C-alpha cells in the first residue's frame, strides 16, 4: 500500500481517499441519508397499521380458537348457548373416511357442540329398546342429539333423515377440542373400550379399523396435511393424551422450580459478563491452549496410526488393499488392514502440517486478532451500557412479532361463514356448492341427493378484500421481515457508533464522549433511518424468496420430477449463500455509516473495498472470534448446566433441603442450559459487534494515519507493538511559545 504526497492513500482496490486532518471518530455534523427509502419505509409502516386495522375490523379470532359446528356456531364461547359445550362431536365419524373429505376439507356429517365426549358404545336402536325399561338411557343419549329434540320414540329412519340424533356413539376422548375414538393397542390388536368391533346403528357389525381410518382422515384435514396416510398410527391419539399428562407434570415442575431457574439464569448472566471482561487477560491463553491441544491431539493420532500400521504390517492378510475387499458394512474389517492406518496417518500428517504452516505464516495476524479481542473487552468495560442494549432490541422484536402474529390471525379469520353441500353420493352434482342452511330443507337438493347436508365449510367471502387475503398475508410477512431486519440494523449501527467513539478517543477513557450509546442511537435514528431501512429491505427480499422456496419444496416433497427437485435445491443453496453474504456486508456497512454518516451504498462499497484490501486479516479475525465466542458459550452453558444438574439431583449437601420436589428433574435443567446459552449468545453478540467495529476502525487507522504528531495512531499500544508502529511525541511548548499563542487574536471561524 502506498501513500502519495498530499495526504492521499490508495489500496489495491477502490478509489483513493483524501486524508481529513479534522477526523476524530464518528462524524457529528452529518445529514440525512437515503431520504427516499426513509419516506417509503414510513409509508409502508403506515400502510401496515392500516392493514392491521382492516384485518381487526373484518377478522374474528374466535374462529381460530373455537371449533365451529355445522350451524356456524362456536363451541365453548362464553355468553352463548354453547358456553358449556366446548367440544365438537361428529354424528357419524365413519363418514369422515369418505374421499370427499380430502377434496372439500370437511367431514360430510352433522357436527354438534357437546359438553363431553361419549364414554360407551350405544346405538339409537338399542337406546329405544332400553328406553322402555330404563329412562336414563335416553337422558344420556340425547345430550348428543340436536338441542330441543326430545322424542325417543321417533323412528330411526326419520331421525336419520332429519339429522336429529346420531345412529351410534363410540367411546371417545377430546383431541383438538373434537371427539375422536379412544384407541388403545393391546397385544398388537387395535381396540376401543376393549372391543375390536361395534354396531354402526344400521344393523351392521363394523371393525374398529374403520374408525381408525375415519379418525386418521379427519385428523389429517385438521392439521392441514392432505398427504398419503401413514400406517402404524393407531395409538396416535392415546399418545397425545399421554403427552397431555406429561405436559401437566412439566407445568407443575416449572411452577415449583421457576425461582431456581431464574437464579440459574442470573448466574449465567453474571458469568457471561465476567467472561467478557476477563477476555482482556485470557483471550490469548484460551486460544493458544486450544490450538496447542489440537496440535498435540493430532500428533498423538499420527503416532497411534503409525503404531497400528507397524503392528499390522507383519500379520497375514493385513496387506490386502481396501479396493480388494470392496464395500463392507462392518467398519471393523477395514481396521484390520495396514492400508487403512496408513491413510489415516497420512491424512493426520497433512492436517498437522497445514495447522503448523498456517500458524507460522499467519502468526502476526493471529496476534492482531487476539489483541483486538482484548481491546474489545476493554471497550465494553468502559461502555457497560452496551451490554444491556439487546434488551431494547428484544422488546422491539417482540412488538414486531406480536403485531405480525395478531394481524395474521385476524386476516386468517376474516370473512363470513360459508356453507356448502356435503353428500356421500359420488354422482351428486350439487356437492361442494354453496348453500343456505335456513332454506336448504325446502330446496330440491335433498330430493336429488338423498342424505345431503348443508354444513359449515369455512370462513370467506366474495368481496375484493376476501379474494386477496392470501396476498395480504404475503404482504404481512414481507413487512414483518423488513421491520425485524430494521430493528437488528438499528441495534448494530447504534453499538458500532458507541464502540467507534471509544476507538477514536486518543486518550482512553478520558477522551470518550459522554453517553456514547445514547448519542449513537440518536444519530442512527435521526439521520440514517433511510439507510438502515434500505439495507434491511434488501435482506428481507432475499429472506422472503427463501421462505417461498421452502414452501415450494414442502409442497413438492412427493413429486417424482428429479430435475425440479434438483433445481429447487440449487436455488435454496444459492439464496442461503446470498443471505449470509448480505448479512455480512450490511453489518460492515452499518459500521461505516455510524462512523462517516454516508448513505448505504457508499458505506457498503467503502467497507467492501476496505475488507478486500485486508482479506487475510478479515478471515483470521473472523475465525478466531467465532472460535473463542463459541468456546465461551459452551463453557458458560456447560458450567451452569453442571451446577444445575448437581442442584436439581440433590447432590449438593449444603442446600439439599431447598431443592423442590420434581416429576422430571431434566425440565428445569434443560431450561437453565438453554437459557444460559441464549443469554451468553446475547452478550457475545454485543462483543462480536464491538470487535468488528474496532477492526474496521483499526484498518482505517492504518490507512489514514502514520504515527506523526499531527496524524497519530489511535490503536492501542499492543497493536502498535505487533505492527512495529510508534506515535511520535509532540514537542513540548516553551513558556515563550505558550505566551505568544495566548497573545494571538482568536479567529472568527
Automatic annotation (TrEMBL):
Name of the protein in question: Choline transporter-like protein
GO CC, alphabetical: plasma membrane
Predominant location: membrane
Biased composition (Basic residues): 726-741
Bilayer-spanning residue ranges: 35-57, 258-278, 285-303, 341-362, 383-406, 479-506, 527-549, 561-578, 627-649, 661-680
Lineage: Eukaryota, Metazoa, Chordata, Craniata, Vertebrata
Region (Disordered): 725-749
Function of the protein: Choline transporter. Choline/H+ antiporter.
Pfam families reported in the protein's UniProt record: Choline_transpo (PF04515)
Cross-referenced InterPro entries: Choline_transptr-like
Methyltransferase in keyword set: no
UniProt GO MF annotations: antiporter activity
Presence of keyword Cell membrane: yes
Family named by the database record: Belongs to the CTL (choline transporter-like) family.
Membrane-topology annotation of the record: Multi-pass membrane protein
Organism from which the protein derives: Danio rerio
Compartments in which it is found: Cell membrane
Keyword field: Antiport, Cell membrane, Glycoprotein, Membrane, Transmembrane, Transmembrane helix, Transport
Catalytic activity: choline(out) + n H(+)(in) = choline(in) + n H(+)(out)
Amino acid at each position: 500500500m502506498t501513500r502519495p504526497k498530499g495526504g492521499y492513500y490508495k489500496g489495491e482496490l477502490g478509489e483513493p481517499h483524501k486524508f481529513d486532518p479534522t477526523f476524530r471518530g464518528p462524524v457529528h455534523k452529518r445529514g440525512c441519508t437515503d431520504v427516499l427509502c426513509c419516506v417509503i419505509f414510513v409509508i409502508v409502516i403506515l400502510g401496515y397499521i392500516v392493514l392491521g386495522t382492516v384485518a381487526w375490523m373484518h377478522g374474528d379470532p374466535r374462529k381460530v380458537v373455537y371449533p365451529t359446528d355445522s350451524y356456524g356456531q362456536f363451541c365453548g364461547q362464553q355468553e352463548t348457548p354453547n358456553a358449556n359445550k366446548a367440544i365438537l362431536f361428529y354424528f357419524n365419524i365413519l363418514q369422515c373416511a369418505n374421499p370427499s373429505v380430502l377434496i372439500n376439507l370437511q367431514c360430510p356429517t352433522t357436527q354438534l357442540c357437546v359438553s363431553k365426549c361419549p364414554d360407551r358404545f350405544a346405538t339409537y336402536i338399542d337406546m329405544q329398546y332400553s328406553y322402555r325399561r330404563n329412562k336414563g338411557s335416553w337422558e344420556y343419549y340425547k345430550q348428543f342429539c340436536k338441542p330441543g329434540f326430545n322424542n325417543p320414540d321417533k323412528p330411526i329412519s326419520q331421525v336419520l333423515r332429519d339429522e336429529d340424533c346420531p345412529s351410534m356413539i363410540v367411546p371417545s376422548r377430546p383431541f383438538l377440542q373434537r371427539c375422536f375414538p379412544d384407541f388403545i393397542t393391546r397385544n398388537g390388536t387395535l381396540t376401543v373400550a376393549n372391543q375390536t368391533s361395534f354396531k354402526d346403528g344400521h344393523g351392521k357389525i363394523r371393525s374398529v379399523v374403520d374408525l381408525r381410518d375415519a379418525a386418521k382422515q379427519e385428523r389429517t384435514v385438521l392439521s392441514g396435511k392432505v398427504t398419503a396416510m401413514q400406517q402404524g398410527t393407531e395409538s396416535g391419539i392415546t399418545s397425545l393424551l399421554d403427552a397431555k399428562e406429561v405436559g401437566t407434570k412439566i407445568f407443575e415442575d416449572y411452577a415449583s422450580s421457576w425461582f431456581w431457574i431464574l437464579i440459574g439464569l442470573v448466574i449465567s448472566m453474571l458469568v457471561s459478563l465476567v467472561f467478557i471482561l476477563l477476555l482482556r487477560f485470557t483471550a490469548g491463553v484460551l486460544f493458544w491452549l486450544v490450538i496447542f491441544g489440537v496440535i498435540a491431539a493430532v500428533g498423538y493420532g499420527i503416532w497411534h496410526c503409525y503404531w497400528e500400521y507397524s503392528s499390522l504390517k507383519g500379520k497375514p492378510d493385513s496387506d490386502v488393499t481396501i479396493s480388494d475387499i470392496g464395500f463392507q458394512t462392518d467398519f471393523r474389517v477395514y481396521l484390520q488392514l495396514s492400508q487403512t492406518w496408513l491413510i489415516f496417518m497420512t491424512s493426520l500428517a497433512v492436517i498437522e502440517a497445514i495447522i503448523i504452516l498456517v500458524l507460522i505464516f499467519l502468526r502476526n495476524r493471529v496476534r492482531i486478532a487476539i489483541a483486538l479481542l482484548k481491546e474489545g473487552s476493554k471497550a465494553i468495560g468502559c461502555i457497560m451500557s452496551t451490554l444491556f442494549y439487546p434488551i431494547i432490541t428484544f422488546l422491539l422484536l417482540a412488538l414486531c412479532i406480536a403485531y405480525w402474529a395478531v394481524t395474521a390471525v385476524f386476516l386468517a379469520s376474516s370473512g363470513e361463514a360459508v356453507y356448502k353441500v356435503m353428500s356421500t353420493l359420488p354422482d351428486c352434482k350439487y356437492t361442494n356448492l354453496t348453500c343456505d342452511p335456513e332454506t336448504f330443507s325446502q330446496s330440491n337438493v335433498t330430493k336429488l341427493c338423498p342424505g345431503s347436508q348443508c354444513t359449515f365449510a369455512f370462513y370467506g367471502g366474495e368481496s375484493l378484500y376476501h379474494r386477496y387475503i392470501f396476498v395480504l398475508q404475503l404482504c404481512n410477512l414481507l413487512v414483518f421481515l423488513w421491520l425485524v431486519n430494521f430493528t437488528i440494523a438499528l441495534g448494530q449501527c447504534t453499538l458500532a457508533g458507541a464502540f467507534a467513539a471509544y476507538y477514536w478517543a486518543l486518550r482512553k477513557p478520558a477522551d470518550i464522549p459522554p453517553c456514547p450509546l445514547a448519542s449513537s442511537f440518536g444519530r442512527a435514528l435521526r439521520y440514517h433511518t433511510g439507510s438502515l431501512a434500505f439495507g434491511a429491505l434488501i435482506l428481507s427480499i432475499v429472506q422472503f424468496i427463501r421462505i417461498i422456496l421452502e414452501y415450494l419444496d414442502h409442497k413438492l416433497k412427493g413429486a417424482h420430477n428429479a430435475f425440479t427437485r434438483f433445481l429447487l435445491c440449487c436455488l435454496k443453496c444459492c439464496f442461503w449463500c446470498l443471505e449470509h453474504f448480505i448479512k455480512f456486508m450490511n453489518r460492515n456497512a452499518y459500521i461505516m455509516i455510524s462512523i462517516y454518516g454516508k448513505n448505504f451504498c457508499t458505506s457498503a462499497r467503502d467497507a467492501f473495498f476496505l475488507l478486500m484490501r485486508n482479506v487475510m486479516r478479515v478471515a483470521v479475525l473472523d475465525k478466531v472470534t467465532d472460535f473463542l465466542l463459541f468456546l465461551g458459550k459452551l463453557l458458560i452453558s456447560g458450567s451452569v448446566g453442571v451446577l444445575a444438574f448437581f442442584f436439581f439431583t440433590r447432590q449438593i449437601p449444603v442446600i439439599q433441603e431447598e431443592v423442590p420436589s420434581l416429576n422430571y428433574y431434566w425440565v428445569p435443567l434443560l431450561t437453565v442450559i438453554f437459557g444460559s446459552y441464549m443469554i451468553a449468545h446475547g452478550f457475545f453478540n454485543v462483543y462480536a459487534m464491538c470487535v468488528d467495529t474496532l477492526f474496521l476502525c483499526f484498518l482505517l487507522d492504518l490507512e489514514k494515519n502514520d504515527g506523526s504528531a499531527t496524524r497519530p495512531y489511535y490503536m492501542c499500544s499492543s497493536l502498535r507493538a505487533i505492527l512495529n508502529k510508534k506515535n511520535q511525541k509532540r514537542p513540548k511548548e516553551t513558556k515563550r511559545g505558550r505566551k505568544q499563542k495566548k497573545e494571538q487574536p482568536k479567529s472568527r471561524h
